[in-house]
UniProtKB/TrEMBL annotation:
Location of the DUF1468 domain: 7-140
Pfam families in the record: TctB (PF07331)
InterPro entries referenced in this protein's UniProt entry, alphabetically: DUF1468 (IPR009936)
UniProt keywords, alphabetically: Membrane, Transmembrane, Transmembrane helix
Transmembrane segments: 25-46, 77-104, 116-135
Biological classification of the source: Bacteria, Pseudomonadati, Pseudomonadota, Betaproteobacteria, Burkholderiales
Protein name: Membrane protein
UniProt source species: Bordetella ansorpii
Length: 145
């Protein structure tokens, strides 16, 4: 089903101008999403059964996350995305990327604020190189207001 939706998305994307990586047309993003869906649709049936994975984890006596820890992770990831949207609009890409990674990393209870900040700084630097220099993304690195 997922691969089928992806294939239909790819077919429909070709009715628009695709463009190229440096100058993306309106069909470029749907084409990439369709390709992602096709790959995902192929990989999902190949993935292990979640019940078997849980049984293996219980058999190995691995610590299982509590409901509160799982909710914290989901809330931090959603909050990080929200921060990226707001901070990206008002402060630019770099502060938004840092806030996204830092907030999402704090969703894992094994991360300290220091390790989350180091991870966020490294990922922000990597994202700046990839999106600004390599892909020439038209998103201001810093902005005020």
């Amino acid at each position: 089903m997922i691969a089928g939706c992806g294939a239909l998305t790819i077919l429909h994307a070709y009715s628009y101008n695709i463009g190229e990586l440096a100058r993306m047309g309106p069909g470029y993003f749907p084409l990439m999403v369709g390709c992602f869906l096709v790959v995902l649709g192929v990989l999902v049936p190949l993935s292990p059964d979640p019940d078997e994975v849980l049984e293996d984890a219980h058999a190995a006596d691995l610590p299982q996350p509590t409901r509160r820890q799982r909710l914290r992770g989901m809330a931090c990831i959603a909050g990080g995305i929200g921060l990226f949207i707001v901070l990206g609009h008002y402060l630019g890409f770099l502060p938004a990327a840092f806030a996204l990674v830092f907030t999402a990393a704090m969703g894992d209870t094994s991360n300290s604020p220091k390790s989350a900040a180091i991870l966020a700084a490294a990922m922000t630097l990597f994202a700046a190189v990839v999106f600004s220099w390599a892909l020439q993304l038209q998103f201001p690195m810093f902005r005020w207001g």
